[in-house]
Design goal:
CATH topology of the largest domain: Rossmann fold
Number of helices: 16
Largest sheet: 5 strands, parallel
CATH architecture of the largest domain: 3-Layer(aba) Sandwich
Distance between the termini: 52 Å
Bound molecules: adenosine-5'-diphosphate, magnesium ion
CATH superfamily of the largest domain: P-loop containing nucleotide triphosphate hydrolases
């Protein structure tokens, strides 16, 4: 008999960065990706590809790309093709084209000098390094929204056109973009847009039954047998389905509930553990996100939270948010940042899913952006921010 010290067989299988060997309900999309990139292992160098994956949070965009990357590099290796899959998260790079390119180039040449180049020069250097190493690359730009938000679309344009300057040389750089907000595509030039829209893989929200399949797979590898009853499982799937078919939420909930079970010395994860986990999972996700923000992002968000708390409204206009931020800056003795910078904060916070933005319908004051707080109570957010800001 094993002692019930833990319900977990292997917790790491629930880690957000873990890439399982199969993805229930994404088989078709994985096939599609393989088809789009088949040339890379059959006739590399002859062409390149640009593909876009889109879908809401927790629909498996990142994990799909990662699993595809693992599979295709394995196939390439077996065929003796020097194909690299490089996955860069644009938000982690603060949307900076320079930082993104730097990560890619460091993948191929770890000693590449970190200073003294412009982004365009880095891009040329990258092409040169690929030529020298006779390497092919599928570059995944995850959370592409951040790059477009920070730098507009010119950079994406130059990246998609990089081979056009020298059509005679071997084609080495393919792109796989991951984007949440497809309306950003409308800001692209029409030819880049049409290429990308042709090769668009749309991931829909998971249904409850699909979430059940995904969870069952994870439970088999992460938990000891008979520690998660079907009733408990059903509760998680139900909860995650109502949170917008978000598999990330489902897995986080499962993990956290397991922690509560361990904490209670329970040999089984019970519905009550799920309920407790459910109460804590969103705020906790946000807290991590919130503490990593820059000072002025925090100040801005604090303004937003307070305004929501005072007004009880569902939406704030960008102008109202700016005013609220100005008041907070005064209180904290900080000089306030300009409109353009605030706009970037809004993009960033929205990419982090802390706030949600949408364009207003055209009203008296013209079109503006409306901000809402879908996942966290304003009071909770204010408390959290005041704590990290040390007030
Ligand atoms: P996104 O990038 O769309 O926000 P992720 O790819 O990060 O979503 O997926 C969120 C979590 O759900 C990850 O832990 C991922 O491994 C898991 N996941 C998503 N889809 C599936 C699936 N079809 N099968 C197994 N796990 C999945
Ligand atoms: Mg992702």
């Amino acid at each position: 008999m094993r002692s019930y010290s833990s319900v977990f067989r292997d917790e790491s299988k629930l880690d957000i960065n873990y890439v399982p060997s199969r993805l229930p309900h994404r088989e078709q999309q994985l096939n599609l990706l393989n088809q789009f990139f088949r040339f890379a292992t059959e006739s590399p160098g002859k062409m390149t590809q640009r593909v876009l994956i889109t879908g809401k949070i927790g629909t498996g965009k990142t994990v799909l790309a990662q699993l595809f990357g693992q599979t295709i590099t394995k196939t390439a290796q077996q065929k003796g093709i020097n194909l690299h899959y490089v996955h860069v998260n644009c938000r982690e790079c603060k949307g900076s084209f320079f930082m993104i390119l730097q990560r890619v180039i460091l993948h191929f040449s770890p000693n590449f000098p970190r200073r003294g180049y412009s982004a365009q020069e880095l891009l040329q250097a990258l092409m040169q390094v690929l030529d020298e190493q006779r390497a092919y690359v599928i570059l995944t730009m995850d959370e592409l929204d951040a790059l477009i938000g920070a730098e507009g679309t010119d950079t994406l344009y130059s990246l998609t056109r990089v081979h056009e300057d020298h059509t005679t040389v071997t084609q080495r750089l393919s792109l796989l973009g991951i984007i949440r907000d497809t309306s950003l595509l409308n800001t692209l030039d029409s030819s880049t847009r049409s290429t990308l829209q042709h090769n668009l893989i749309q991931l829909d929200e998971y249904s409850k039954t699909q979430l059940l399949d995904i969870l069952n797979d994870r439970i088999a590898s992460a938990f000891y047998d008979n520690t998660v009853s079907s009733q408990t499982l059903d509760l998680i799937a139900e909860d995650a389905a109502s949170e917008g078919g978000d598999a990330r939420f489902a897995i986080e909930l499962l993990w956290r509930a397991g922690k509560y079970a361990d904490n209670d010395n329970s040999r089984e994860v019970l519905p009550e553990h799920i309920r407790r986990a459910s109460e804590s999972v969103y705020p906790v996700v946000r807290k991590d996100a919130v503490s990593a923000l820059s000072l002025h992002e925090k100040l801005f968000l604090l303004g937003v939270a307070r305004r929501f708390k005072q007004s009880g409204a569902a939406y704030l206009s960008m102008g109202e948010a700016e005013n609220a931020y100005a008041v907070v800056c005064e209180e904290y003795g900080e000089e306030k940042r300009g409109h353009t910078q605030l706009w970037k904060y809004v993009q960033e916070l929205s990419a982090l899913d802390v706030i949600k933005t949408e364009p207003s319908s055209v009203g008296l004051r013209g079109k503006t952006t409306l901000i809402s707080l879908p996942h966290v109570s304003a009071a909770e957010l204010e408390r959290e921010l005041s704590k990290t800001l040390g007030a």
